[in-house]
Specification:
This protein is α/β, with parallel strands linked by helices. It folds into five domains: about 80 residues; about 150 residues, von Willebrand factor, type A domain (Rossmann fold, 3-Layer(aba) Sandwich), CATH 3.40.50.410; about 100 residues, Immunoglobulins (Immunoglobulin-like), CATH 2.60.40.10; about 200 residues, Rossmann fold, CATH 3.40.50; about 90 residues, Immunoglobulins (Immunoglobulin-like, Sandwich). Helix content is about 25%, strand content about 35%. It has 14 helices and 33 strands. A nine-stranded mixed beta sheet has the order 16-15-17-18-23-22-21-19-20, with helices on one face. A five-stranded mixed beta sheet has the order 4-3-2-5-6. Strand 29 and strand 30 form a beta hairpin. Helix 1 packs antiparallel against helix 2 and helix 10 packs across helix 11. It comes from Flavobacterium luminosum. Keywords: Membrane, Transmembrane, Transmembrane helix. InterPro entries: vWFA_dom_sf. This is VWA domain-containing protein.
Length: about 675
């Protein structure tokens, strides 16, 4: 308690005693027992009231001994079992947990990890990956200001996350215990394989493979890619102590539509300890997406070149710029882009009235809107001769197809005559028009579907400025080109709109967690938030059937899968209330990333130890590590001062006592006729 507080208490004591003496003894000049009692009560009331106002606080100090934390982190990934180190790990865990000297000196805390970090999780060595970097991220959160050692039992082979060698905390010393064979055996490995998930029919698709060799002599090897029993690519490669890597590029033919699985294999005449990493499966879906597009215009405009270049970034699209009076056969094209139609387009509209080819109409300052009112019935145009600049507002509820906001609101405005544009039927608007900061009722980009016929309308010219603005922002045309390609893809499909739409990949790697999503639309093609969706999976090899329920997400329904066995699966997604259903299939490729390593990664573990002023150990030298931890003076027990503060009197009980004293004084005075 501070000196100033003590002085206040003494002063309060004197004031309370003085007032009580003056009121009941000095003025009364009668030292009867009643007056003495009332003086005492008045003194207690005044002193208690002042005491509550001063609220003196007592400070207590005590000291606690705080041991240095010793986290022992164990690799729980499947590679430990693959390297036959499970029993050794359990022995090491027991050795640390039962060491009396360590428990007396340190606060032993056991953790495990695979792709995640666990504080209390039984070891089963079935983790589908290992993220060592995450270990140090979590330890940083647990021990922010302590200097502590870390014992890390691992093979050092990481499959996920950042580089763990440079991800440690400055005040931690890491002592890795290398699990697995520390002798480097001859090993050939497919380190990485890059291939597109999709390829287009009659094209060639690239496959890039990175090979790695671990050995001390020159050897020859053969790299091949197989499709079923057929070898579709083969190349010899030579490795040596000075040439441990090789990159193989292959171009494979996409000659059949569908999902095709391939196997990349590296072989040699040498005996290898680990053959699992000599093979890598991959799959490619070949799709037929060729589109012939006529870009019809009677004027010359920068938009034409920008549209053509953006669309043709997709090799399956071919755009032909043609004048309306020069086009002969509309049926030679899959899509018609009508740029600023006028009376010269009459023959085009007449021919297409019978062919019903999907169209993309773009208007601008050179458009004849009276002509459009006459030759189409989806929109009514009431336009003035005055020019206006229209900016775009992205509508997040757009659901005709999946697209993202690529920054439309920041794009330069498009030019179109001022007026009103009224949609007569049903349409879906992606972009709403805005004049400066004022939103209008006019659409800017709208998609209309009528049966199997689809149309798109863009009300404004100078879309080339959008492409340039996207490039300035992203340093690439890619986002804009993808946006325009999705518009073309929508128009290229003549299939009737489905009530049940499933989004999934045709192949996944074994051990990979993945999600299948679905959207169900009612008869008005509105997203149904109360749908009841289930998916039935059938393993084609075992004929085993499993049924799962979809869970509602933000804008769709989702179901997650993990640990599915390799093989091909047929599935049926069904909506219970309407009995609507759709089918499909996907394939789980046989690939276990934890079986790609034949040895412990000694070099990286040693580098980790050096970077943290630790030291690398092996299970055979674990006694040296334990002796070091027992005897070192680097990690000392800290004495922690704990300060607690408590008030001299609790406010609640002080107020209760004050009320009791006031009540007692009143009743005594009342009883004795002093009121």
């Amino acid at each position: 308690m501070a000196n100033s507080t003590i002085l206040l208490l003494i002063f309060s004591l004197i004031i309370s005693a003085g007032i009580a003496f003056y009121q009941y003894l000095y003025k009364a000049k009668n030292y009867s027992k009643l007056n003495i009692f009332l003086a005492f009560i008045r003194f207690a009331i005044l002193f208690l009231l002042l005491l509550l106002l001063i609220n003196p606080v007592f400070t207590h100090k005590k000291y606690e001994n705080q041991k240095t934390a010793l986290p022992i982190v164990i690799d729980n990934s499947a590679s430990i079992a693959f390297l036959n180190e499970v029993e050794k790990v359990r022995e090491l865990e027991k050795l640390f947990s039962e060491n009396v000297n360590l428990k007396e000196k340190y606060d032993l805390q056991f953790f495990s990890f695979d792709t995640d970090f666990y504080s209390e999780n039984p070891l089963d060595f079935k983790g589908r990956g290992s993220n060592i970097a995450q270990v140090f991220d979590r330890l940083k959160q647990l021990y922010r200001n302590q200097n502590y050692p870390v014992v890390l039992l691992t093979d050092g082979n990481q499959t996920d996350g950042n580089d763990y060698v440079f991800n440690t905390q400055p005040n931690s010393n890491v002592f890795p215990v290398a699990l697995g064979d520390t002798i480097k055996h001859l090993d050939l490995k497919i380190n990485q394989l890059n291939a597109n998930k999709y390829a287009f029919l009659k094209n060639k698709f690239p496959v890039e493979t990175f090979l790695y060799y671990n050995g001390n002599k020159t050897i020859g090897a053969t790299f091949s890619i197989q499709s079923g029993n057929q070898i579709v690519f083969k190349q010899n490669v030579t490795f040596s102590p000075n040439k441990k890597t090789a990159t193989i590029s292959a171009l494979l033919n996409a000659d059949r539509v569908g999902v095709h699985t391939y196997k990349a294999v590296i072989t040699s005449k040498e005996n290898e300890k680990n053959l699992f990493n000599n093979t890598k499966n991959f799959a490619v879906e070949v799709i037929d997406q060729r589109s012939e597009i006529a870009l019809i215009s009677s004027i010359v405009h920068p938009d034409l070149g920008a549209i053509k270049r953006a669309i043709e970034t997709n090799a399956q699209r071919k755009v032909t710029i043609v004048k309306p009076n020069e086009i002969k056969r509309l049926q030679d094209y899959n899509i018609l882009i009508l740029y600023q139609p006028n009376s010269q387009f009459k023959t085009v509209f007449d021919q297409n009235s019978n062919l019903n080819i999907n169209t993309f109409i773009i208007t601008g300052l050179h458009t004849d809107f009276n002509f459009l009112n006459q030759y189409q019935n989806l929109f009514e145009f009431r336009m003035a001769g005055q020019k206006e600049d229209y900016s775009a507002d992205f509508k997040s509820d757009f659901n005709a197809f999946a697209t993202e906001n690529i920054g439309f609101e920041q794009f330069p405005p498009l030019e179109n005559p001022f007026g009103t544009i009224t949609l007569k039927g049903n349409g879906t608007t992606l972009l709403q028009s805005r004049i400066r900061n004022v939103s209008t009722d006019n659409p800017l980009l709208t998609f209309v579907e009528n049966g199997t016929e689809r149309q798109a309308y863009l009300f404004g010219e100078n879309i080339w400025k959008w492409r340039m603005e996207s490039y300035l922002k992203e340093k690439s045309f890619e986002k804009f080109d993808i946006f325009l390609d999705k518009t073309i893809q929508y128009l290229a499909s003549n299939a009737k709109k489905k009530n049940l739409v499933i989004t999934y990949e045709n192949f996944y790697n074994s051990g990979e967690n993945f999600v299948i999503s679905a959207q169900y639309f009612n008869k008005n093609y509105e997203f149904d938030e109360n749908a009841q969706l289930t998916i039935q999976l059938k393993n084609k090899k075992t004929n085993q059937i499993k049924i799962f329920d979809f869970a509602k997400a933000e804008n769709d329904y989702q179901v997650a899968f993990d640990n599915l066995e390799p093989g091909q699966y047929d599935f049926t997604v069904k909506e219970k209330k309407s009995n609507t259903q759709t089918t499909g299939f996907f394939q789980i490729l046989d690939f276990d990333i934890e079986k790609q390593f034949a040895n412990a990664d000694i070099d990286r573990l040693k580098q980790l130890a050096n970077n943290t002023q630790g030291k690398l150990y092996t299970p055979s030298t674990i006694d040296n590590l334990i002796k070091y931890l027992e005897n070192t003076d680097q990690y000392k027990t800290l004495q922690k001062e704990i300060i607690t503060r408590s008030p001299l009197i609790d406010w609640f009980w002080g107020l209760i006592l004050l009320i009791v004293l006031l009540t007692t004084e009143w009743f005594v005075r009342k009883y004795n006729g002093l009121l």
